[in-house]
Amino acid sequence: METSCAFQLDVSPETLVYGFTLTDKYLIAAAQRCVVYSHDPLRPGKQADLDIGLNWEVKCHPESSLLLVATRDATGKVGLWNFENGTHIQDFIGGGMMHSVAFISKSQYASSSGGGEILLWQREKQEPTNTLHGHRAEITRLESKDSMLFSASEDGTVRIWNTTSGECVQVLEGHPENTSILTFSPDGSLLRAGGGHGQVRIWDWKNGKLKAERQSEARHTLLYVNTNDGNLLTGGIDGTIKTWTQDGELLHSFIAHEVPVRGLARAGQFLVTIGTKDGRVELWDRQSRKWLVDLQEPIGFIRNYTTGHGKLAILSKSGPGEPHNVQVWDLDLIEQFASRHVDSAL
């Protein structure tokens, strides 16, 4: 028995989709162009086509239709777009190629160069308002919270910046070079830093104190999922799912796939685990760690996924020359579907 996805589309096999993101109404697929699709059941389909060119990263503002793009351009171009109507708003030109971008607010933005500099930008201004120095190598991730900017770098540090003064207020040291994931606990007090190296470091970022450090022999994929109780879920390249407390204590683990885990999503009390080459999307009871049912038949090699606004999007491809398939699922409907299988699994 299967449940149907809320929205499905095929993307041309010639289009190399780097990544995609979800808003409350739209799915944004980033490739050589940025294509915006509505996943509203009342008016599904393509809505806008943005000629953004090759890019390193795109980010959506969480409360508006603004899109920030780090373009693969030697001049260091960062583009600001309205993804809802497809209009280009402004370019910001910095020194050297920009790899990462972040929204600080609707009108203030950050971009990072390969040399470790961070440029702050203001809408409708042509020059950067500030340049932040401190990192000694390429910056791998930018995130913002409460007007503070967080940057991870190949120099092994995570730096926290006051974007008003431009001051670096904390330097968190001891991270591997490929730290590329920065997430926060539900109450915002703890910063989790990690990546594909298997190390997870948990910081009280306001006072710069390391709360916990955990290293797994089975390296983790780039997945963090917060639970309602503040616990952290990670997925491994060995197919293992692990649950950690806010302070980094390992509570339990189980093997969900015989291949690397591509994605995780919460649907109420249930957990969605997404494999890679097995093409499986599995539903689990998170408390008992019992497999319940597959969401559907295997869907080919799963290349990417994203969650947001109560939705889960999965990008898959069945074979060479075949189109990419994107499915968008409603997590509330997945929860209802999983709940019908609990009794039979226990």
Automatic annotation (TrEMBL):
WD repeat start-end pairs: 132-171, 172-213
UniProt keyword Zinc-finger, yes or no: no
Keyword list, A-Z: Coiled coil, Repeat, WD repeat
Keyword Nucleotide-binding (UniProt): no
SUPFAM superfamilies: WD40 repeat-like (SSF50978)
Top-level taxon of the source organism: Eukaryota
A Pfam cross-reference name: WD40
PROSITE patterns: WD_REPEATS_2, WD_REPEATS_REGION
Function, in words: Involved in mitochondrial fission. Acts as an adapter protein required to form mitochondrial fission complexes. Formation of these complexes is required to promote constriction and fission of the mitochondrial compartment at a late step in mitochondrial division.
Family statement: Belongs to the WD repeat MDV1/CAF4 family.
Protein name listed in UniProt: Mitochondrial division protein 1
